[in-house]
Amino acid sequence: MTSDLTFLALSGSLRSSSHNTGLLRAVQNLAPHGVAIDLYQGLGRLPFFNEDLEEGPEPAAVADLRRRVREADGVIIATPEYNSAIPGVLMNALDWLSRPTGQHALRHKPVAVLGASPSQFGTARGQLVLRQILHRIQAPVVAHPEVTVFQSHRRFDADGTFSGDDITESLLRALLAELVTLTDLHAPADAI
Ligand SMILES: Cc1cc2nc3c(=O)[nH]c(=O)nc-3n(C[C@H](O)[C@H](O)[C@H](O)COP(=O)(O)O)c2cc1C
């Protein structure tokens, strides 16, 4: 196994007590030895993607996100489900990370996805949309386990802190282990 990996965690919610951001904090606490997880908190600072902006200087917030994704060994995305899809702020970030096509920051970058929602489906539909987008932009995604935290209003407190349970924590550990494996498979040859 590769040692000393860094994963960048993106939450698709800007909400201060977001369950998805809380889920990522729980993932941070479960990181195995040798894995550091940085929580990216700049999603709301990204300008709306507009092809005209690609002709001028790269916006600072975009440059920062792209650099952090490039420097990370892998990315973890926790997404809410909005209208059976993903929130616009997350789609906006993915649009920026998918350009310029072929040299984009998420190309060949291993990704793990998960999500939390108060519904019975726990973002299952939103995660399918996210997986389709990541497939289109050539980011390899952990296939299994699929972590859908349903009835999230019963599992997070008013501050968005995850109350924790054995089954979910075991799934989160398994997801991280699979991301480490995927990262090893996609490591640049000179890094092995
Ligand atoms: C615009 C909007 C659309 C939503 N659509 C769905 C949906 O399709 N499925 C679902 O399970 N929850 C839906 N929800 C509820 C969110 O899952 C819920 O607000 C969740 O807590 C958001 O995640 P967060 O806590 O990380 O902010 C929607 C919420 C909003 C604001």
UniProtKB/TrEMBL annotation:
InterPro entries: Flavoprotein-like_sf, FMN_Rdtase-like_dom, NAD(P)H-dep_reductase. GO terms for molecular function: FMN binding; oxidoreductase activity. GO terms for cellular component: cytosol. Pfam families: FMN_red (PF03358). Residues 7-149 form the NADPH-dependent FMN reductase-like domain. This is Chromate reductase. It comes from Streptomyces spectabilis. The lineage of its organism: Bacteria, Bacillati, Actinomycetota, Actinomycetes, Kitasatosporales.
